[in-house]
């Protein structure tokens, strides 16, 4: 089925100073469990501008063509991590993906991220993802009495885990991992990234516990170093490197 939004203005009609507009087709994989268990594809053609992102085009569809189109988004600026989806076969944030970078002369294919149950259209059930995240205890663990002054840390100690503090829990890495697709029990890259953030924090005392948890048969050893996760991460985190560092800490007990 194809739906088209009105108000299309060709680039030739653009006045001086205006941002050129063009028509773009979104080919979206949809699921409406109230009607059928079978997913289906639907195309929408909308007018967009050179500065628009995929999220802007999706908003246009939702607000002007079909209000039933369902997807998550919140901040629209790459911070909340809620709009990860498969765009032209790659996991990306819709709010950080410019249409002009995708060759908008061809339909842009949008699907839900893989490996998690689809609830409706592009919305997946994130609970299995967050269950793994919670299991690695992503919080500072300390013993004894609370200190009377701040817990001090040198710039070098802070740098040790700086990269993994950038995670926004979008699941782009975990849902791009072939091991996760075939075995939903695998903790997945995001949980390991968030364990790394605390394992290498000099103020934390829970590293041994976390390493024990990740030494499980569904833990870090399932990683096959395919680098999909690093390529998918919209924050540029070196996910595979973090996983390797956790593996090394497990063997050397140096953290
Ligand atoms: S590591 Fe990157 S891709 Fe994975 S959840 Fe965090 S921000 Fe998203
Ligand atoms: S909507 Fe928040 S990261 Fe895209």
Automatic annotation (TrEMBL):
Keywords from the named record: 2Fe-2S, 3Fe-4S, 4Fe-4S, Iron, Iron-sulfur, Metal-binding, Oxidoreductase, Tricarboxylic acid cycle
Domain (4Fe-4S ferredoxin-type): residue spans on this chain: 157-179
Cofactor comment: Binds 1 [3Fe-4S] cluster.
One example GO MF annotation: 4 iron, 4 sulfur cluster binding
Domain 2Fe-2S ferredoxin-type span(s) in chain numbering: 22-116
Catalytic activity: a quinone + succinate = fumarate + a quinol
Principal EC category: oxidoreductase
Pathway where this protein functions: Carbohydrate metabolism; tricarboxylic acid cycle
Cofactor: [3Fe-4S] cluster; [4Fe-4S] cluster; [2Fe-2S] cluster
EC number: 1.3.5.1
GO biological process, one term: respiratory electron transport chain
Family of this protein: Belongs to the succinate dehydrogenase/fumarate reductase iron-sulfur protein family.
Name recorded for this polypeptide: Succinate dehydrogenase iron-sulfur subunit
């Amino acid at each position: 089925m194809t739906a088209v939004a009105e108000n299309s203005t060709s680039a030739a009609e653009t006045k001086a100073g205006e941002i050129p507009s063009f028509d773009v087709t979104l080919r979206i994989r949809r699921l409406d469990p109230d009607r059928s268990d079978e997913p289906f594809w639907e195309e929408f053609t909308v007018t967009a501008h050179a500065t628009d992102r995929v999220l802007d085009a999706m908003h246009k569809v939702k607000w002007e063509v079909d209000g039933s189109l369902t997807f998550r988004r919140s901040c629209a600026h790459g911070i909340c991590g809620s709009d990860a989806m498969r765009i032209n076969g790659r996991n990306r944030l819709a709010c950080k993906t410019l249409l002009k970078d995708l060759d908008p002369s061809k339909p842009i294919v949008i699907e839900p991220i893989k490996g998690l149950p689809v609830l409706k259209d592009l919305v997946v059930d994130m609970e299995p993802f967050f269950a793994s995240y919670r299991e690695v205890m992503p919080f500072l663990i300390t013993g004894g009495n609370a200190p009377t002054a701040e817990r001090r840390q040198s710039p070098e100690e802070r740098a040790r885990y700086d990269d993994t503090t950038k995670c926004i829990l979008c699941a782009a890495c975990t849902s791009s991992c072939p091991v996760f697709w075939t075995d939903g029990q695998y903790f997945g890259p995001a949980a390991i990234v968030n364990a790394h953030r605390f394992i290498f924090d000099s103020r934390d005392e829970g590293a041994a516990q976390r390493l024990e948890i990740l030494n499980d048969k569904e833990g870090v050893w399932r990683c096959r170093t395919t680098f999909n996760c690093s390529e998918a991460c919209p924050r540029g985190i070196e996910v595979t490197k973090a996983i390797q560092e956790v593996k090394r800490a497990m063997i050397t007990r140096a953290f």
